[in-house]
Amino acid sequence: MAQVEIERDGAVMIVTLNRPHRKNAMTLTMFAQLADAWEEVTANDDIRCVILTGAEGDFSSGMDLRALAGDVAEPDAIDTGARMKEDPGFIYRGLLKTYRPTKPVIAAVEGVAIAGGTEILQGTDIRIAAESARFGVSEARWSLYPMGGSAVRLRRQLPYAVAADILLTGKHITAAEALHYGLVSYLVPDGTALDKAREVAATVAGNGPLAVEAILQTLRATEHMSEEEAFAFEQPIGMSVMASSDSKEGPKAFAEKRTPDFQRK
User: CA 237, CA 241: separation in Å to the nearest integer?
Assistant: First the structure.
């Protein structure tokens, strides 16, 4: 059984964390398979959007602490020792800490998204949460450090006092609180997060791919630039999109009342 399952639905790739017997807790094998999936997303022009979700009612409970303590549920599916020697950065790439694909990533969260589950969530772009989902970065409870990036990222995505409370107490928050704080984009009934993610992904995938990727690049790169610096950064990116054939096809399709046929050029 693959610890990360990959499915294609047209221009959308669906990446499923697949260790439901441990609430999709993360392993080195999982990180390696995630890192490979993200690289495939960037390399494959046929993929326009990605959904990240978890199997059987949970997103992820974070790193498998039971396995770290010796209670291993299954052997690693790959030679993680060799992978670590050849490619020591795969863990953080898999967690979306040091690498993010050039296509939008939509999270579909049911159940728990704790520790590494909330850490990888912060590397996604649009986030759908089921009503009973729970979030938190609880590493401090066990005298661990949130190496997936939350000590930096959570403060940048939430107000300081909220991020500090979550990180320092190790508390969990509800999906309604996550929506209130802006950690997630949508709140949906239990059991429907993936359906909503598919709906949003289909909309994103139907838009002009050059425009989507350029907007995403600007969103990510300019967050901490001054407005003047950000405008200078975006100028060549935006002009490249505006000079494309797709930028002519979009208005033409609008005028002709038909669906655009974007060609990524």
Answer: 7
Q: How far from the centroid of its chain's Cα atoms is residue 254's Cα?
A: 31
Q: What pLDDT sits at residue 96?
A: 98
pTM: 0.95
The predicted-structure confidence for 145-186, as pLDDT tens digits, reads as follows: 999 999 999 999 999 999 999 999 999 999 999 999 999 999
15 close to 6: Cβ distance less than 8 angstroms: yes
CA distance 250 to 261: 8
Q: What domains does the chain contain, in order, with CATH numbers? A: 4-205 (3.90.226.10), 208-255 (1.10.12)
d(CA 187, CA 175) in angstroms, rounded, equals 7
Distance CA 91, CA 95 (A): 6
What's the token pair of residue 145? Answer: 């450090």
In three state form, how does the secondary structure of 35-91 look? HHHHHHHHHCCCCCEEEEEECCCCCECCECHHHHCCCCCCCCCCCHHHHHHHCCCHH
Structure tokens at 159: 């107000």
Query: Residue 224: how many CB atoms within 10 A of its CB?
Result: 8
Task: List residues with catalytic annotation.
Answer: 119, 139
Mean pLDDT of the 5-32 span: 96
Estimate to the nearest angstrom the gap between the alpha carbon of 260 and the chain centroid: 27
